[in-house]
Amino acid sequence: MSSAKPASQVRTLADLAALANVSASTVSRALNDSPLVNAETRALIKALAAEHNFQVHLGAQSLRRQRTQTLAVVITAERPAGNAMTDPFLLELLGEIAAAASQRGYDILLADARDDLRDWNAHFLRSGRADGLIMVARLSERTRQANALHAAGAPFVVWGPALPNQPYCSVGSDDFTGGRLVTSHLLRLGRRRIGFLGAGSDCLEVSLRYQGYVAALADVGQAVREQDVTYAVSTSQAGFEAMRRLLAQAPDLDAVFVNSDVMAVGAIEALHATGRRVPQDVAVVGYDDISVASYLRPPLTTVRQRVHEAARLLVERLDALIEGEEAASVVLPVDLIVRESCGALLR
Fold first, then answer.
1. Which of 260, 293, 262, 299 is nearest to 278 (CA)?
2. Tens of pLDDT along 123-171?
3. CB atoms within 10 A of CB 157
4. Domain interval for residue 126
């Protein structure tokens, strides 16, 4: 294989990039087996690297580029004061993000930001402790912090649905369709009064699921009744209490759409405690398809979010932004997982 430089002169990514007629970032990605580089280009770059005995020293490369090879993940999940973060869906998402980051040579720096930590974006990015940031935030925090990060030109991505005309990158699920799928499914099963138990009032995902719920009811000529809707934080205890409250407001409910599986655990217990059978008397559908959902009694019908793909895209998009490239937002489809709690298997 011919080359423009002798091996002794191929010392940097830029040297190798010039030989391959690609950018230095493409060389870096190819040597790390990034799926963003096609197989033919990866093979060419690796062959050139082998021919010229080229090896990347990660520590030196990091110093030259003033990189930490660290991504910050900041969470502002709503929960009772003093409670540790134990939500299974968030923990699964974090685990998948860590795995995806590791595949690209990044470590993870995790921050659990509360209301008293107003400048966490500055804390992690301006301090130089992280090359970029993944935000998992309530709507109010997301709006304020994302606008500040964008104005500062910081590389970051957001987990959650895209807002109209947002100037930054987000990766999220199609929550409107998720809410509509659940409600339409229950209506097709003959349920006539469907409650809505929302996981947090300051949550864009829940707002979109509610809009899907409203749309599905409207499809069959039903209007939402105020007493059929309530909100709580996403814990099993809160789900239990909210379900009791919902039953007091609307005792003739024959189905409930619970916006997290964790809350659904408590909601089912509340139904049992009040003498109602699930699903014979009240059908229950959750959201997230956490690992225990299929082991509940009855097994929980739920909506599965594509967490593995979401984590991969979050890290991929952030890596592109760190490299100075553009990154488009993504909305991932969701899947209705039918189990016994909705009553479909009774028919």
1. 299
2. 665 667 788 999 998 777 787 788 878 877 789 999 999 998 899 999 9
3. 26
4. 70-173+307-332
CA angle, residues 225, 228, 232, in degrees to nearest 5: 135
Q: Is 324 exposed, middle or buried (0-12, 13-18, 19+ CB in 10 A)?
A: exposed
Residues 135 and 189 in one domain: no
Encode pLDDT of 28-71 as tens digits.
Answer: 778 877 777 899 999 998 899 888 887 654 444 444 456 788 99
CATH number of residue 229's parent domain:
3.40.50.2300
In this prediction, residues 240-262 reach a mean pLDDT of 97
Looking at the structure of the chain, the number of domains it has is 3
Q: Which of 120-124, 138-142, 278-282 has the lowest mean pLDDT?
A: 120-124
In a domain? residue 1: no
Verify that 190 and 257 share a domain, yes or no.
Answer: yes
Which string of b and e fits 11-49 if b means at least 16 CB within 10 Å?
Answer: ebbebbbbbbebebbbbbbbbbebebbeeebbebbbebb
Short-list 204, 198, 212, 194, CA closest to 172: 204
Query: Which is nearest to 228 in space by CA: 207, 208, 214, 209?
Result: 214
User: What's the whole-model pTM score?
Assistant: 0.79
Half-sphere exposure of 171 toward its Cβ, with a 13 Å CA cutoff?
Answer: 21
Q: Which of 193, 68, 188 is closest to 129 using CA atoms?
A: 68
- Within this chain, do residues 207 and 342 fall inside the same structural domain, yes or no? yes
Rounded Cα–Cα distance for residues 75 and 91 (Å): 11
* Same domain assignment for residues 204 and 340: yes
Rounded to an integer, what distance in angstroms lies between the CA atom of residue 186 and that of residue 302? 12
Task: Specify whether 84 is located in the same domain as 160.
Answer: yes
3-state secondary structure at position 111: strand
Asked if residue 340 and residue 192 are part of one domain, the reply reads yes
Q: In what order do the strands lie in the sheet with 229-232?
A: 229-232, 194-199, 255-258, 283-285
